[in-house]
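Re: export button greyed out
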Amino acid sequence: MAYKPQYGPGTSIVAENRRKQMNPGQKLEKVRSVTDEDIVLILGHRAPGSAYPTAHPPLAEQQEPECPMRRIVKPTEGAKAGDRVRYIQFADSMFVAPSQPYQRTYSEMYRFRGIDPGTLSGRQIVECRERDLEKYAKELVETEMFDPARVGIRGATVHGHSLRLAEDGMMFDMLQRCLLDEDGIVKYIKNQIGEPLDRAVAVGKPMDEKWLKAHTTIFHSLAGTSYRDDAEYIEYVQRIHSLRTKYGFMPKEE
Amino acid sequence: MAKIERTQKLFLKSLKEKFRGQDVESETAEFYKFGGVRQSPRKMEFMKASRAIEMDRGLAMYDPERCHLGGIPMGQRQLMTYEVSGTGVFVEGDDLHFVNNSAMQQFWDDIRRTVIVGMDLAHQTLQKRLGKEVTPETINEYLHILNHAMPGAAVVQEHMVETHPGLVDDCYVKVFTGDDDVADDIEPQFLLDIEKLFPAKQAEELKAEVGKGMYQAIHIPTAVSRTCDGGTTSRWSAMQIGMSFIAAYRMCAGEAAVADLSYAAKHAGVVQMASLLPARRARGPNEPGGIKFGLFSDIIQANRKYPHDPAKASLEVVGAGVMLFDQIWLGSYMSGGVGFTQYATAAYTDNILDEYTYYGMDYIKDRYNVDWRNPSVDDKVSPTQEIVNDLATEVTLNAMEQYEQFPTLMEDHFGGSQRAGVIAAACGLTSSIATGNSNAGLNGWYLSMLLHKDGWSRLGFFGYDLQDQCGSANSLSMEPDRGLMGELRGPNYPNYAMNVGHQGEYAAIVGGAHYGRGDAFCYSPLVKVCFADPALKFDFAEPRREFAKGAIREFMPAGERSLIIPAR
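Workaround output, generated via the alternate export path:
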């Protein structure tokens, strides 16, 4: 019987949202448009329009050894071209931001190829070949996995995920890479590493509380859905723990 | 699991003081207006001191307004003060870095410079091999000589250099025994009197364990162990012990029996505070990585002073443990950074872990009728998986909800590792105090980590999470990896050797299992008695209070050097 991913347990809206983000069979809702050039500006790895710097010659020009793995695993476009490995890093507010660190990693692993994600409490980084990164970044920013106010694109000094929100609803960022403008649109004035941009990059209006609560993937008893209320989820974690305790990492059904 | 009512929030007073004039339950705050580092008196002091140093040495130093993020200093949010838990003392975070805190330094100095050496082997050598008479009078005379020699004075030689007593006044030797008759014959100045130092029930238990043997609690000079290392302690002490025996019992300095005395003092009869680490750690004995968690819980004396509050006793171990294992061991010995303090202090500031732990105490009383205020083996619950799961789940959910209900609390513990360690510690302590089983406590810790990670989709950092996702398999059932009981584990246990925010809490979980049973000790009765000594520079019954004193610069450490340096 072929393995069929279940994308996690739970009966709550949080659990349902998690499954939706992870499941590559479900199309993520596009919420905003950000141009390719603007994505490149926020990333800050290369100037828009410039050639992709390379770490090695294109694979087609290299003497690739005969290798069964190479036949099975087709290279991504970035790998084919020999692009550098670069990154995008997100900080997600615990005040019901739409995605959260482990959720991002799980979703990216299901949806993208050739990636190396890293998961921490206050940030989540994904590294991959540069042209692949730009494609993935666009999807991560334009869809329901992003909110301009509660999600930050931050290469360094990510502090803010657990802090109270600023009075305008923005997540704290000591570098203030993006600001809520008077027109109600969030604009990046610095790239993700904090270098000033020549022009502001608009990433859209913050989503409202109702939308955030309906789309978030974090349990939160004050701002969203209480973890305690999803009994199935808790029981599932307890079960995994119990089986690992008794049987190590070769669990048996009881 | 079922939420229980608990109206008291131990952290509220701290939050209201830290965020004075603000609604601690508000989800919003003002930022970017605090003046950066200039909002902090301590950072201002640092800048002023640095300017003077720069003028003196002609070389740049502390300059946060230029060097931090290209001119954006920290302090774009409010730089918080911290209350050292259980003390009511508010301090600057900087004051809890061990470099800035003399009490923290002395805490570790006092452990590193300590060994316990049995006297019975030496007495047998003197009596059986040399035919010498050993009496209370000769023992007292020997102790007089030893307290002259141990700080670094000569007893046999002619024309020898010696150490200045004013520089080594923290060095001395006392003895203890479980035999009341023998103890009565020892001069009070040299005796650690178990009867007087411990509550009656604990004293009886300790005396029975120590037995009729006699042990020397030896503390070599702080200045020596600082200049050398922990491995020096047994060598320094053994040298002075040997010379003192020669002097006290009129032995020949070169006779072969001296080798027996040396062997006893250096090897056969010595109890180190920490075992030798593997070569890749490059540390000798009596260095932090080799301290077993059970032994560490015996070093801390809070259960002696507060026998009816195993939660407090355990929380004192947490504070002491994270300071030593996170701030000093992992933070500096192993990593070389300065950031570990920020992680570690979360576990002993603002009464947050205290609140979560006492919620657990209320829960075990309410749900399982554990009378935790009267520690006993009689009402301990079975360490079954079902019970551990129930305890850890409820304590985890409560703690997560507190962070959610009080956004300033979340802001206080702004890092995931801080929250994860604190929540899991409360679960571990609740489980171990309720069951009297340290491994049940560790298992509660690991379930908490899994629940936390899935609830908030985040935990700590890469390596932090690895440890906690392996832990279910090596705790309550030790079968999967042939693991150890908690008492015998230590900072160098597989998977434990890498991450901040764990080791001090693990030690406390081990301690809690015994404090909850009302045991007098966790691992070593000898260590328990040794650190009950009121003459030690650091009061091991009140580590958090001592750290607070260090933070406000009221702690007087050893290691005096003003006698031998120019006056300022």
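Chain B touches chain A through 58 residues (CB under 8 Å). The button fix ships in the next patch.
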